[in-house]
Amino acid sequence: MKMSCTVSVLVFCLVIVAKYPSVDASNQTKLYLLGLFPLDGPYAQDQAIQPAAQLALQDINANPDILPDYELVIIPRDSGCDGGKAINGMFRELYNQSTTKIMIIGGFCSVATEPTAQASHHWNLIQISYASTSPKLSDRGLFPRFFRLAPTDFVINAVRVALCKQFNWKKVATIHQSAAIFSLTMAAFHRDAKDAGIEVIAAESFIDNPTTQIANIKNIGARIIIGAFYGYMARRVFCAAYQQKMYGAKYVWILPDWLQWRWWRDPDDAIDCTQEQMDAVTANYIGIIAESLPSDSNRAPSLSGMSTSEFLERFKVIADNEHPETMTGFVEISFTYDSVWTAALALHEAERRLRQLEPSRTLKEFSYDSLTAQIIFDIISNLTFQGISGPVTFAPSGDRVGLILLRQLQDGKRINIGMMDPTVGSGEDISWKGYQPIYWSGGATPIDFMIEREDRQTIQLSLFLAGAILATVGIALACCFLAFNIHFRKLRVIKMSSPNINNVMLIGGMLAYISIIFLGVDTNIASTDTFVWMCKAKTCCLSIGFSLAFGSMFSKTWRVHKIFTNKTVIKTVVKDQRLFGSLATLVVLDVLILILWEALDPLVATERFGAKVIDDENDDIVYTPIRMMCESSNQTYWIGAFYVIDGLLLIFGAFLAWETRKVSIPALNDSKYIGICVYNVLILSFVGAPVSFILEERNAHYALVATLIWLATTLTLCVVFVPKVRMRNDVQPTQSAITMVSQLSQNQHGGSSADSTELRQLRQEIQRVKQNCKCSE
Question: pLDDT (tens digit, 9 = 90+) per residue, 464-519?
Fold first, then answer.
């Protein structure tokens, strides 16, 4: 191994000597560059940055056309990816008066570069970073003399947006580590995405445990996830993603690809996922990184004269590593090489311009003066050349405008799949030609979100027709009872039961049946405006119908109660006009509430969204139930007013039925039947009302409410009128009572005092009936 390396070094030395004439270094002045490298800490082990810088120095110093009177020397100092350590090393070296530093190369991490770049301009020094990508470094107010060869993360955002446009992803989620470099980048991405019509449906950040944030992204249904974090946090994110099953054909992860080689396989006690699980969850993620080593076929010749493959061969020799891609900082080796070349080219041109000044000056006279610094700054701002990393040019912010590479992890290897060149065309198009195709494990491009479909819950036509038919049957039944009541109104058995009041009761029942038809009219068969009017009509019919039906029934019972609770034998007459007055009061009260409701808080059509439901056969589809409802702001209070009135009416009816339970003239008294009706209505109301409020499915809701209304109305009418139909052939309404008197008279001899008392009460009862038989005339 040592022998082969030695031979390789000799071969490349011969190449350099043959390519460039020998330069006599004895008469050259040294120009010192301060190099900030991660010499210690987690980023320093087997790191590749310094060998790349040394290779650049070797080529520059061997080139007689670049700074022929000078020799470039880099003084390395440790930045350690730590701001305090970096600025301490810079201060110590700048205050070392034995050497004058003419420029600063570095640092590696943004956290180390920011404080040094914020201070170095006070010494009139230009600083060029080879790796730092923080968007904050683009601020010329804070970093007035800073440049960088690694494209900023803002440029990576442009690729993220372009990637979403390419595959028609309109909804994405983001998750990033809570650090300034990532927070600024994601904030910028959110703005760019919004401008591009891309919705960020979840924006999560975390400090050290991303479990909750990953679960939030899973619950919201995002499929395209854009992440930004360091390698050790990336392992925690993906372990949490594995536990949430957020990987495979349905998910796409888009990450910055400057993470260390096989970052997901590094041993980490902070996660409880195996290597096999981490391999599974990271498979096929898409990485975005500045293109540092463009292929020979996709690049113009570099200024150094080397192709990418030649550069890599030379780097292997100087780094003494046959597999440099495993070295920390390998991605940045071409940026480092081009950073030194940028400094050399700027200094070479600055030397020429300084010599043209009056009086003439040179670089070796540099003493941290602003004139030389400004000349170097202007030169770099307008500098353009072909570097190993591709075309080198700078934006006014000092950011490199360079190539951006897209890679995908396929079978454990990073495969180049596309590239964006901001200097060509609109600068927003991704070139896929000449690269490997993207692999989708599902065989097709994943969708960006669960397919949301509206499930408008309208009443099925068949169900509406069934309800309408039942309502029609009920109306027909009420019409039959009404015809019967009118036809036999002169019969004593019908006449004594107040046929006029019975007619009103039947009209109330018809209104209740009609409300069933109105209830079933929705946007499936009518317009929204018609639907609202049907809602209002249904409310009117049901409220007024209830008052007429039960008010009529209870008013008759009140008359019986009035007659038979009279302690004297004085004739008591309660005519129908008085009962009609009571009914009119109830109806007027209902109408008044309805008018106030319409005037102050009218019903409007609103869409009520139910809980989303995932399709059983395809979990990419989620249905959102939508019910069209008739609602108003204070609807609860208006409905509550009807509940109070109708509830009091039922209680009053139950009281009257109980009070008249001993009146034994069926033709006159309906107390037993009223009790049955009240019992049925109360049971149906207590069961149906709460269920109807909870039930969201439109068809089930209509079926339940319509059935309850139909049953309550039908049972009430049948219980009240069927006995009358059966009694229509009775000769005298008091026949049963007279029979009872005869039976009691026959048994009076030897009977008890209680029997005598009952006989006396029954005779009085018959007398009262005869006196009041004209109540319905």
Answer: 899 999 999 999 999 999 998 888 887 776 776 778 888 888 999 899 999 999 98
Adjacent-strand bridge partners of 454: 624
User: What stretches of 448-487 show up as alpha helix (H) in DSSP?
Assistant: 461-487
8 A C-beta contact, residue 627 and residue 696: yes
Residues forming a β-bridge with 448:
none
Q: How far apart are CA 79 and CA 373, in angstroms?
A: 23
29-37: strand order across its sheet: 70-78, 29-37, 101-105, 126-129, 146-148
Per residue in 522-563, pLDDT tens?
Answer: 877 888 888 888 888 888 998 888 888 877 777 777 777 676
| CATH 3.40.50.2300 describes domain 2-150+305-397 | yes
CB atoms within 10 A of CB 364: 14
pTM summary value: 0.57
The more confident residue out of 469 and 575 is 469
Hey, what amino acid is at 622?
Answer: V
Q: Which two tokens stand for residue 105?
A: 């190369």
Domains 2-150+305-397 and 455-776 share a fold: no
Token representation of residue 163 = 């990637």
CA distance 204 to 234: 14
Q: Return d(Cα 679, Cα 672) in angstroms, integer.
A: 11
Q: Closest by alpha carbon to 596, among 564, 632, 638?
A: 638
> What is the domain partition of the chain in residue ranges?
2-150+305-397, 455-776
Q: What is the DSSP letter of 22?
A: -
C-alpha 490: how far from chain center: 72
Which candidate, 766, 774, 720, 725, places its Cα nearest to that of 742? Answer: 766
Confidence grade of residue 13 (pLDDT, cut at 50, 70, 90):
very low
Could you tell me if 131 and 124 are in contact, meaning their C-beta atoms sit under 8 angstroms apart? no
* Strand duo 604-609 + 621-631: pairing: antiparallel
| List of E strands, 561-615 | 604-609, 613-614
Query: 248 near 440, Cβ under 8 Å?
Result: no
Instruction: Please name which of 177, 117, 119, 185 lies closest in space to residue 152, comparing C-alpha atoms.
Output: 185
Choice between 426 and 743, residue whose per-residue pLDDT is larger: 426
Secondary structure (3-state) at 427: coil
**728: CB partners within 8 A, 6+ apart:** 484, 488, 491, 493, 494
| 206 touches 484 (CB < 8 A) | no
Bridge partners (DSSP) listed for residue 609: 626
Q: Is the Cβ–Cβ distance between 225 and 246 less than 8 Å?
A: yes
Tokens of residue 445, six digits:
């491009």
709 and 509 Cβ atoms separated by less than 8 Å: no
Alpha helices (runs of H) in 121-220, residue ranges in sequence order: 153-166, 180-195, 211-220
CATH topology of domain 455-776: Rhopdopsin 7-helix transmembrane proteins (1.20.1070)
Q: Which helix (H) or strand (E) holds 624?
A: strand 621-631
The owner of tokens 């009257």 is 656
Whether residue 663 is predicted with pLDDT greater than 80 in this model: the reply is: no
